[in-house]
Amino acid sequence: xxxxxxxxxxxxxxxxxxxxxxxxxxxxxxxxxxxxxxxxxxxxxxxxxxxxxxxxxxxxxxxxxxxxxxxxxxxxxxxxxxxxxxxxxxxxxxxxxxxxxxxxxxxxxxxxxxxxxxxxxxxxxxxxxxxxxxxxxxxxxxxxxxxxxxxxxxxxxxxxxxxxxxxxxxxxxxxxxxxxxxxxxxxxxxxxxxxxxxxxxxxxxxxxxxxxxxxxxxxxxxxxxxxxxxxxxxxxxxxxxxxxxxxxxxxxxxxxxxxxxxxxxxxxxxxxxxxxxxxxxxxxxxxxxxxxxxxxxxxx
Length: 300
Hints:
It is a peripheral membrane protein. The chain is an alpha/beta fold. It is 32% helix and 28% strand.
């Protein structure tokens, strides 16, 4: 499929800090693409360069075959942007805010109002934006990015302030618009979100892409053990260690966890002992890949 976004060797410095240090990536038409990284990794700066909100020091980027910088009026109706920090017109209600954004693109009020229901804000339609909660303001910001039905949507940590129900609701919304053929690029700190939604991801740190690919492919490429948990008392530690393929054992009295790189042999042995009731099997996840590449130290 044709590429909607092509970025080559993007670089951006702020003094001695290399915020973006040679980023090269492409996003296909209709793809759901995620950019993952720790705080300060360069995700937002990379996104802003692609969106045309910030000029790169060097490198080149095209969106729909056109350069987004300097700002290209021909691109603006084709893209929707939700920023990390949202700013709204003062003293407008949620409905008025969305209608104002829609009017910039010739969207009828009726169609703009329907977007409130899409993001679960119908009951807050007449609430001034300054009285919305953080999560509600986030959902309104996303509605503003989607109101004109753009072909390409940029979302910068769209679910950061949302509760679990609102997150899952938004996932459904994003899946639906992606299924309609729209291309979506998002940054997120939630690995389960990226693993669930994205066709491909790029893991970025210190301004460089460390690895990219389909989440399942990245997980399979990680040499990580499987953890098999059984209820405490089902097996003793000695019995568990005697099973084939066991690398390590931990037992906290509530559950016994078997660490193995040969889970099929362990599960077969447990089945032979009639010890499968309540068994939980946890393989590697995208979070394990992320931590393997970026480290485990906390970054403010």
